[in-house]
Amino acid sequence: MISANFSAIFYLVSGVLFILALRGLSSPETSRQGNFFGIIGMIIAITVTFLSIGNFSNGFVYVLIFLLIGGLIGAFIAYKIPMTAMPELVAGFHSLVGLAAVFVAISAFLNPEAFNLGSPGKIKLGSLIEMSIGAAVGAITFSGSIIAFLKLQGIMSGAPITFKGQHPLNALILISIIILIYLLCSTQSSNFFWILLAISFLIGFLLIIPIGGADMPVVISMLNSYSGWAAAGIGFTLENSALIITGALVGSSGAILSYIMCKGMNRSFFNVILGGFGATEQSSSTQNKEQKPVKSGNADDAAFLMKNASSVIIVPGYGMAVAQAQHALREMVDTLKKNDIKVSYAIHPVAGRMPGHMNVLLAEANVPYDEVFELEEINNDFANADVAYVIGANDVTNPVAKTDPQSPIYGMPVLDVEKCKSVLFVKRSLSPGYAGIDNDLFYKENTLMLFGDAKKMTEEIIKNLG
Amino acid sequence: MEIDPFIFRLSIFILSIFVGYYVVWSVTPSLHTPLMSVTNAISSVIIVGAIIAALAGNSDSIFNTSSIFGFLAISLAAINIFGGFLVTQRMLAMYKKKKKDK
After folding, report:
1. Which of A341, A454, B70, B95 could disulfide-pair with B54, CB 3.0 to 4.6 Å?
2. For the stretch A76-93, what's the b/e string if a residue is b when 16 or more beta carbons lie within 10 angstroms of its beta carbon?
3. Global ipTM
4. What is the arrangement of strands in the sheet containing A311-316, beginning at the earlier edge strand?
5. Which residues of A touch B63 (CB under 8 A)?
6. pLDDT at residue number A297
7. Closest CA in chain B for residue A101
8. Closest residue of B to A251, CA-based?
9. What average pLDDT score do residues A167-196 get?
10. Considering only residues 50 to 69 of chain B, which have any Cβ-Cβ distance to chain A shorter than 8 Å?
11. For a pLDDT cut of 70, what percent of chain A falls above it?
């Protein structure tokens, strides 16, 4: 058994190591070391917890068993998961953090003596408030992440689900959460605690169902943030600085990512959260659908254009992930490079279903990260490039965002693909993108549409290049 | 008058938010996905609460309603810890610089 002060110091150390873990991610070279710091921090935190309890009774064995069960499942998932499924995995993990926070809060509520919080029915006021906030946020994180997971996995339709009175209902529930916390604190009645948990689960569910598939980068980041705040809430209850520090780190990390994603779509956070985007816009764009001429070509034409180019910019999007085309893409680029053609990749901040989604997929396909550029870094290069190869991206290349103030995506930062001498646009059909808006790029003089599956098309181009 | 320990915890909390803010802004956008998976892993440090909850049962009964929730939370958090760190490691191992040709 070690003293409380001693263990508090070690919790602080592990908190600092977690900060270093995030700090390491500032560049790929230092990132692996950062991850290592994170692991060390976790080992310290767990070891110190064991030592501070010091009571190595038979309960200890069960702790190890449960730890091992979870660990094996986690390790198995980590090794098996395909990189394209990363958004689902992260959403799934968020839900587990949320549920774990709820369980710890329940346990603390039922047995406050174990945590030095008072006795059942006489829990310290401050602890009770912290505990109920942690539990409520944890529950919201859990059910919200489950919905995000189902939507990403395709089990549930990615289309926004909206109904009349949705916003007033949500507002009502949020207010009742606050009232319930107040009632819980004044009466200490466990009934209020259970009701609080139930409606927190409900609101998490209701908050996420109206949000459409392509807004998932914001949702995942937001839930990331929530999981942090839940952990911090529990950290306050347990008076544990490692948890408080980590919760604050994760909370602000998720908030920043949400902000970056919202900015990438030129939408306010509230606009995304209130949801329903895409559902209302579709009707307006389908009305004035005159048939405009489109130039379409085949892999042979594409190969010809690329062979005669001196620089090519690749613009990947979610469609590349769906078609698992990243490996074929890299092969194509290898062939181009053999012909002394300069190739770079342009990534829009909201390409894919989560922040950094495209970068991971390209890294998986062995694309060196110094060939991959962010929007601001590469946008001026389109004017000097010969060919842009748009694979699975759509709305993020739509010039309408710059020209038409009526458009729902007006003002969104887009890649200036149309400035290239020629644009090769791989797409299955002419259907509008997620936002329901026609892409002007399809009808430009210098655009050649390549209709087909992203992977098959890329493979055919490779054949024609050879 | 003595300062409530809560204020100290609040100070840690607020300062950590600021640390998080500056540290996360310096994360390169290409590593945003690993950032999310590693934050997943570290927020599962909530396992310390789960362990305390699980071992809180008296000597006569290891399993009671309160400790069972603790044990379950241990497993959930452990999935995240192992899964989160390992998948992050797997991803980071893929980020390679251009090979110096020739």
Report:
1. B70
2. ebbeebebbebbbbbbbb
3. 0.93
4. A296-297, A447-451, A422-427, A387-391, A311-316, A342-347, A372-374
5. 62
6. 83
7. B46
8. B17
9. 90
10. 50-57, 59, 62-67, 69
11. 94
